[in-house]
Write a structure and sequence with these properties.
- The chain is an alpha+beta fold.
- It contains 18 helices and 16 strands.
- A hairpin with a 5-residue loop joins β15 and β16 (438-442).
């Protein structure tokens, strides 16, 4: 007999956790809809060719590939042996795998836009709340299966989209009670840095290394850059770039002196425009070390960090001005952000931020005092349920002590007791299981009584 267990990086969620996660989902959803975003859902799996080549070399390695079915025939098995050699060397091999679990929600969204471009009204504002999968090394705050909550705008190049998405982050985390820092940067700034270090072909190496700064530190980043054949003076320029500190305004000044406009294009002016909307707001920070490893970003990039906890980023995103071009539909600009629900949950749990109202379990339990009393209890419960109260009837007739213990374990606040005597008088007993205070009322007044005590 096999021992039951879960794959690494995945989790079960009991009722209490599901309630708390629903609180997060509902809070974020309400903010999205308040800004005019509409819901979308896409399949858990995509064709492998849809995903490969969109996330950079590091990201492609983390895609969960799905083994083709139908490999039971001996001829197919023989063909599969050579195909596995290609798989192990990191190549795509349609004889073995043609599909994969989605890595994020952005590429499937771009595929959807490309497929339905003639049905969509642009600009298209969509939000999506679904799980994604990554073959990452599990650790605190990092899972192989986790939810993302994305909001994207496609069909517009206006920087007002970036301003609104920044404000969505601030509003949602304020509603969740999490003190955050929304960090922003611009990929054209990073491209300008790469140009100053030898040319645009250096961009992947530089952004990948910089993206690891928080994890491995400056010395390791410098080592990695030298290993990727950058010259010491180029590495020194990158170190100087990453060492810029001060207020947002001060950083912009030093940055403009370090990298000329001809290298950074409109990167600096874009940042100035967006930061101008958040003057005096210390939650919006220019972070020049922010790189976002995904290769499809072309403009402003975002990352959100929770203060006072050691968990990594709890949100991120950016502009991608030609993502649909991967699917033969060029020139549809877009920008989006994502909330990392699983990390947000961990932050809220660690900081004890969940309100009592997040748990929506049974509010009223009716004790089972025999068949006739249970029938009356069921009738009264239906009336309370119609009014929005969450009720349950203990499943069988049992000693009072057993029913009380059940209610206590489930943390149910109210018990209604209707037995033979109560059936005769038409009065129900109501007990507050937290204070021990007991009262009574007529059957027809049960809802109003529960509302006032």
């Amino acid at each position: 007999m096999s021992k039951p267990g879960l794959p690494q990086g995945t989790r079960d969620f009991g009722a209490e956790i599901v309630y708390k996660r629903s609180f997060i989902f509902n809070t974020i959803r309400s903010v999205f809809e308040g800004y005019g975003f509409e819901p979308l859902e896409t399949p858990a799996m995509e064709n492998l060719e849809t995903l490969l080549g969109k996330y950079g070399e590091e990201g492609d390695k983390l895609i969960f590939k799905i083994l083709n079915n139908g490999l039971d025939h001996s001829a197919k098995q023989e063909s599969a042996r050579s195909a596995f050699e290609n798989i192990l060397s990191g190549k795509n091999e349609p004889r073995i795998t043609e599909r994969a679990l989605r890595y994020d929600l952005t590429i499937p969204f771009a595929r959807y836009v490309a497929t339905h471009q003639h049905e969509i009204t642009f600009p298209f504002r969509r939000y999506q709340l679904q799980p994604v999968w990554r073959a990452d090394r599990p650790q605190k705050g990092r899972y192989r299966e986790f939810y993302q909550c994305d909001a994207d705008v496609v069909g517009s190049r206006s920087l007002m989209n970036e301003v609104e998405l920044t404000q969505i982050y601030l509003t949602a985390f304020e509603k969740l009670g999490i003190d955050v820092e929304v960090r922003i940067n611009h990929r054209k700034i990073l491209s300008g840095l790469a140009a100053a270090c030898g040319g645009p072909e250096q961009t992947p190496a530089i952004t990948t290394a910089i993206d690891k700064l928080d994890k491995i530190g400056m010395e390791k980043v410098k080592e990695e850059l030298l290993e990727k054949k950058l010259h010491p003076e180029q590495v020194s320029l990158i170190e100087q770039f990453l060492g810029i500190t001060g207020t947002n305004y001060r950083k912009m000044q030093v940055l403009a002196d370090l990298l000329p406009d001809k290298l950074t294009g409109d990167g600096i002016s874009d940042l100035q425009t967006i930061l101008g909307y958040f003057k005096g707001n210390d939650k919006v920070v220019l972070d020049l070390s922010l790189a976002r490893g995904l290769s499809y970003y072309t403009g402003i990039i975002f990352e959100v960090r929770a203060k006072n906890v050691s968990i990594g980023s709890i949100g991120g995103g950016g502009r991608y001005d030609d993502l649909t071009g991967f699917f033969g539909v060029p020139d549809i600009p877009g920008v989006g952000i994502s909330f990392g629900v699983d990390r947000i949950y961990d932050v809220m749990e660690e900081l004890k931020l969940f309100p009592a109202s997040a748990k929506r379990s049974t509010e009223v339990i009716f004790f089972h005092m025999g068949a006739e009393a249970a029938a009356k209890s069921f009738e009264l419960m239906q009336g309370l349920r119609a009014e929005g109260l969450r009720c349950e009837l203990y499943h069988e007739q049992a000693k009072m002590d057993k029913q009380f213990k059940y209610a206590e374990k489930k943390n149910i606040p109210w018990a209604v007791i209707i037995g033979t005597e109560e059936l005769k008088t038409g009065f129900a007993k109501i007990k507050n299981l937290r204070t021990g205070i007991q009262t009574e009322c007529r059957f027809e007044e049960l809802f109003s009584k529960l509302q006032t005590i």
